[in-house]
Specification:
Helices cover 38% and strands 14% of the residues. α1 crosses α2, α1 crosses α10 and α8 runs antiparallel to α11. The longest helix has 21 residues. By secondary structure, it is α/β, with parallel strands linked by helices. The strands form three sheets. The protein has an eight-stranded parallel barrel with strand order 3-4-5-8-9-10-11-12, surrounded by six helices. A two-stranded antiparallel ribbon has the order 1-2. Strands 6-7 form a two-stranded antiparallel sheet. It starts with 13 loop residues before the first strand and ends in an 11-residue tail after the last helix.
Length: 339
């Protein structure tokens, strides 16, 4: 578990995560796939190697959640960090509020926000991760059974008790952020955001105005923006892969998205970077975005996007990407970062 000073950093640039006192690299490792339940077959040893490779490249934070593989992702993170001196460990971020039924793992998880349930989740995550304190603890989604004020005050109590370093939210709206902020500062927000999915721009702007960090997830839109996807590949995704049921990967939306990717290729080629790195650099160009969570199932995949952490897009490049979005009709939301 990191101490109060930031872990040693490699060559990757960092930015302050809101008011938490943590300086994080512009990209972090997302351990969703390591759970192994929604991405098809994922080898645990490959996941461990991917995490360790990301850390060797200079990344200083990992984002996971208990719902990823029903605790398995957190256990993989623990395995990847075993033997590492506490002062050298990355920051570990995880989540709460999604509870599964052990007898019916295929059923949709329940959004539970009671204090008792959150305490059980926190204790289980601490045990699985092998840490005494979680650096950033995030409510995964708004609860169905509990008022926001109740579950947010519970997280603030965890923070006061020293069980977590900072309390945060994920997938919450501006109105919900306002309600939480009245009780206690929201350290960070985790929204989905990519050049294709841009609807959360309003939440990012709210965070920028309130000193709240933002770590966006799926900046490569689950692989769509890597250039590795074709219409044929999308049609043949196995049923165990959640993308086989995602609207971005089917029909006219897929055709628009693939056309946008084609338009990005000359820009990436001129910069000498991969499409994945370009996609990461685009979200990092957005004012208010602290960092981007990027996943990988292998160490080789890390190499495909790590360069995005050090790429600064020019105004001309951002305009070219905006023009491509307007021309292809890919996604929705503002097509360029606010000036």
């Amino acid at each position: 578990m990191p101490n109060d000073s930031a872990p040693p950093q490699g060559a990757l640039p960092t930015r302050a995560l809101g008011k938490t006192g943590m300086d994080i690299t512009r990209v972090g490792f997302g351990a969703w796939a390591a759970g192994g339940t929604e991405w098809g077959s994922v080898d645990d040893a490959d996941s461990v190697r991917a995490i360790r490779h990301a850390l060797a490249c200079g990344i200083n934070w990992i984002d996971t959640a208990p719902i990823y593989g029903f605790g398995h992702s957190e256990e993989i993170v623990r395995r990847a960090l075993q033997g590492m001196a506490a002062a050298d460990r990355p920051y570990v971020f995880t989540k709460c509020g999604l509870v599964w039924d052990e007898q019916r793992l295929t059923a949709a998880p329940q959004r539970v926000g009671t204090a008792e349930s959150l305490r059980r989740e926190l204790d289980a995550s601490l045990r699985r991760l092998g840490v005494e304190r979680i650096d950033l603890y995030q409510v995964h989604r708004p609860a169905d059974d509990t008022a926001l004020e109740v579950y947010w005050e519970t997280l603030l109590a965890f923070q006061r008790a020293g069980k977590i370093r900072a309390a945060a939210l994920s997938n919450h709206s501006v109105a919900q952020l306002e309600r939480a902020e009245r009780l206690g500062h929201v350290a960070s927000l985790q929204p989905p955001f990519s050049a294709i999915r841009r609807e959360e721009a309003a939440e990012i702007e709210w965070c920028r105005a309130h000193g709240t960090g933002v770590i966006v997830y799926s900046p490569m839109q689950a692989g769509l923006l890597t250039g590795a996807f074709t219409a044929e590949r999308a049609r043949t995704l196995p049923a165990t892969d959640w993308r086989s049921r995602d609207p971005y990967f089917a029909g006219e939306a897929l055709q628009r998205n693939l056309a946008f990717v084609e338009a990005l290729k000359p820009i990436a080629a001129r910069r000498g970077v991969s499409l994945g790195a370009l996609a990461v650099a685009w979200v990092l160009a957005w004012p208010g975005v602290t960092g981007a969570i990027v996943g990988a199932r292998t160490a080789q995949q890390v190499d495909g996007w790590i360069g995005g952490a050090t790429v600064t897009l020019s105004g001309e490049e951002l305009e070219q990407i905006a023009a491509a979005l307007e021309r292809t009709g890919a996604g929705s939301g503002p097509v360029r970062p606010p000036r």
